[in-house]
């Protein structure tokens, strides 16, 4: 279609030029009319060469008299998840994105710009100060994609490198603004809340530039050396305090156990004394016999004992 159009334009220009030359070259000498065909042919050839030169300069692969088909059209192949914005040198940017598949375009006259509308990752790293003036380094991971319905506007305002133009700028701005509301310790204890605040603010800012954010998360958070050392010392002190508390509690328990044991022994001694007063030395004799029996059983089981007398006079001194 484009080849036929260019050919017809060339033929029309040649015809107009030829007619003008013929009309201008017509003479009447009073006796006969004659056409200066030679002059007409010269003008025709000059016009023909001029049109061919202009078409070659425009890099269009067509000739007025001999069109070349192999360079007339080119093909843009779009994979899944890709969209194409076509720029026309006469009509400007097309307001309807082109979907997946094969699409033909005329070189020089049309320029395709391919966009990936699938979700892509972007990491933003910055160093900023907290509310208590502690420096903290953060890494923010963004999953972004262009707004497909606003793709022509995005192309006109930002271009294909929209992510590099917008995301680092608004990312650093939002991180600095949100982190400044928290102190250094709160960034650790309230990390989920900090992430939520950052997500809400940066998502809203990105929408103003026709960029959709599917997910925002803090992937790295670190402090300066001095603050890290202070946190480490604080943790060591807390662990030492907990250890001391444990030792004190253990000592207290041991003290209570000793008191209970002493009270038990005193009560036992009191009961034994009371029993001796009431029943005489019979209780002591019974305890002695029980002890002798236990000793004898232990010696009988020992491999080093080869002889054990039957009498118990050796073990218990009796009159």
TrEMBL record:
What is the similarity comment for this entry?
Answer: Belongs to the prohibitin family.
Under what name is this protein listed? Prohibitin
Give every Band domain span. Answer: 74-235
| SMART domains reported for this sequence | PHB
Membrane-crossing segments per the record: none
Q: Where in the cell is it found?
A: Mitochondrion inner membrane
Q: Which CDD domains match?
A: SPFH_prohibitin
Superkingdom of source: Eukaryota
Q: Which organism does this sequence originate in? A: Eimeria acervulina (Coccidian parasite)
């Amino acid at each position: 279609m484009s080849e036929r159009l260019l050919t017809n334009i060339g033929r029309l220009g040649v015809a107009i030029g030829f007619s003008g030359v013929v009309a201008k070259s017509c003479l009447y000498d009073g006796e006969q009319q004659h056409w200066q065909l030679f002059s007409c042919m010269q003008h025709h050839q000059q016009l023909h060469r001029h049109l061919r030169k202009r078409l070659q300069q425009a890099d269009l692969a067509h000739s007025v008299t001999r069109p070349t088909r192999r360079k007339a059209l080119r093909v843009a192949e779009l994979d899944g998840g890709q969209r194409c914005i076509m720029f026309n040198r006469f009509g400007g940017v097309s307001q309807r994105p082109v979907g997946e598949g094969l699409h033909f375009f005329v070189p020089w006259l049309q320029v395709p710009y391919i966009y990936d509308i699938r979700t892509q990752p972007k990491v933003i790293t910055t160093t900023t100060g907290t509310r208590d003036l502690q420096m903290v380094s953060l890494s923010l991971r963004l999953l972004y994609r262009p707004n497909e319905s606003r793709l022509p506007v995005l192309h006109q305002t930002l271009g294909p490198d929209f992510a590099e133009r917008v995301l680092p700028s608004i990312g650093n701005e939002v991180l600095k603004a949100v982190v400044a509301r928290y102190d250094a310790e709160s960034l650790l204890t309230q990390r989920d809340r900090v992430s939520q605040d950052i997500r809400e603010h940066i998502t809203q800012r990105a929408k103003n530039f026709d960029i959709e954010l599917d997910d925002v998360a803090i992937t790295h958070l670190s402090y300066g050396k001095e603050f890290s050392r202070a946190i480490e010392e604080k943790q060591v002190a807390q662990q030492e305090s907990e250890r001391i508390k444990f030792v004190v509690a253990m000592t207290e328990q041991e003290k209570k156990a000793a008191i209970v044991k002493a009270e038990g022994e005193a009560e036992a001694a009191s009961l034994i004394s009371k029993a001796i007063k009431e029943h005489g030395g019979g209780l002591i004799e019974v305890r002695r016999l029980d002890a002798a029996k236990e000793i004898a059983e232990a010696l009988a089981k020992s491999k080093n004992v080869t002889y054990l007398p039957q009498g118990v006079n050796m073990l218990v001194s009796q009159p």
